[in-house]
Write a structure and sequence with these properties.
292 residues; alpha+beta; six-stranded antiparallel beta sheet; 12 helices; 48% helix; 17% strand
């Protein structure tokens, strides 16, 4: 059963990678489609139910219908709290949307950028209209129409433009003081370092001092601000993000362990091994093979 699920996940990811787009009803979703490769794919999700969404350093409790925008460069997780959960999801790469939306405009979008508004509360009338757009995307991806990709892009852009008309959710906590602003900039800069695309260009910013120097602030000020806003130290954010990227690279690339370590800023394999061992309690080889 496990081998079958792995095969389905692999087929789903290969198809998504090849086409750069996938839309589906949540009710039709299998466990496999929830485990798509997180690298490269943006996500728009229209859902009805109770859930808790963790996005970067903030959390949102949702009930009713919401529209969620996920950025592959910003960590997020989703807890489903209700028994019934319905809606639609579409996944797409920057390359798929490239002909009509430039990559940098996606990064600066009020929905996809760090510190933006990734969650909107949706009324019943709005839900019905958005449902139609998702349904049309699902229909088109299965059609033989020559220009279906262009049509799907238009539907995605229509969802984004309709969303720009809506008011941000009031239940989303956003701090506006100086500590929150510098923390937001730090977290955005941290996420810009990922995902790591090649094994021959090592990570440039690896320590709290590196980030403070880049942001032109004293490292003590940065540490105090990040700790105050997130409850975690600057170093903890950096190390946790590097560990998460290490796991992704070990599991989703064919780079050897030395190459993974070098890409993440470790000049010698022993340094990388010691780092992973200290943070995870195991070694990179075990993380790669799943023998944990």
């Amino acid at each position: 059963m496990k081998e079958k699920q792995v095969r389905i996940v692999s087929e789903f990811n290969n198809e998504l990678k090849l086409k750069g787009f996938k839309a589906f009803r949540l009710e039709d979703d299998s466990n496999a489609t929830r485990i798509y490769s997180r690298k490269d794919f943006y996500k728009i999700c229209l859902t009805t139910g109770r859930s808790r969404i963790h996005y970067a350093d903030r959390s949102f409790d949702a009930e009713g219908t919401i529209l969620f925008f996920g950025n592959p460069h910003i960590p997020y997780s989703w807890e489903t709290l209700s028994r019934t959960y319905v809606g639609y999801t579409c996944l797409f790469s920057e390359e798929f949307l490239q002909p009509t939306v430039r990559s940098e405009s996606l990064q600066q979008s009020p929905f996809f950028k760090l510190g933006g508004t990734p969650i909107l509360k949706i009324t019943e009338d709005q839900r019905q209209f958005l449902n139609t757009l998702f349904q049309k995307m699902i229909e088109e991806q299965q059609s033989e129409y020559t220009y279906k990709d262009e049509l799907i892009r238009n539907y995605i852009n229509l969802i984004i433009h309709e969303s720009l008309k809506l008011q941000p959710s009031e239940n989303y906590n956003q701090n506006k003081n100086a500590a929150a602003r510098i923390t937001s900039v730090f977290l955005e800069l941290l996420e810009r370092q990922f995902p790591v695309e090649t094994s021959d260009q090592p990570l440039q910013l690896k320590t709290a001092q590196d980030y403070a120097r880049h942001l032109n602030v004293h490292v003590n000020y940065l540490n105090r601000a990040v700790k105050e806003v997130t409850g975690k130290s600057t170093t903890t954010h950096i190390t946790e993000r590097i560990v998460a990227e290490a796991k992704a690279l070990l599991q989703h690339t064919d780079w050897n362990i030395s190459e993974v370590g070098y890409a993440l800023g470790f000049e010698y394999p022993t340094y990388f091994n010691n780092f992973i061992k200290k943070l995870t309690g195991t070694n990179p080889k075990a993380l790669r093979t799943g023998n944990i």
